[in-house]
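Regression test attached.
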Amino acid sequence: QKEVEQDPGPLSVPEGAIVSLNCTYSNSAFQYFMWYRQYSRKGPELLMYTYSSGNKEDGRFTAQVDKSSKYISLFIRDSQPSDSATYLCAMIDQGAQKLVFGQGTRLTINP
Amino acid sequence: NAGVMQNPRHLVRRRGQEARLRCSPMKGHSHVYWYRQLPEEGLKFMVYLQKENIIDESGMPKERFSAEFPKEGPSILRIQQVVRGDSAAYFCASSPGDRAAFFGQGTRLTVV
């Protein structure tokens, strides 16, 4: 079993829809949770960074962490074609220093 | 403040040659990570370094791969005697130590 599970998709939605991306994990020591966006042939770009359980909002993006269920989510409101990319979740435990990534979900927003 | 700089962006090597990938972290960042990404796959951790120290190399293949982060200059990922299976995108990330890492644009290695 992988430490971090993420549905690779692909996921295709119409412009303006609310997008929900999710990851589950098995390591209860994970405390820091991140979402990255990666455009084709580019490096991953940090979108959201949260510590422990709760919600964090930044513009059209909302990150949620539910440690009791070992489940994290990224919501994108009013999705735009420019949001089309691969979204990677990542997490790290308090003692370690390496990021563990999910496989990434390929998202396409159709105009 | 420039981001994480990786060079070269593209590198072609013949089987058996050596590949050297360079990474200059963001200013003020003393933690460097290297990841490998194969087509249609996620990012796989290779090594974590701080200045002059390898902290965690649990993701590095046991042979032919090495990494360093000297006191002065960029971090180097070195692959000796490359084989076709080494063809991938190699990403470097840096962090100031609060665990939020920022990535470079990657080096795409092609072994022919």
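Expected vs. actual: identical. The first strand of chain A starts at residue 4 and ends at 5.
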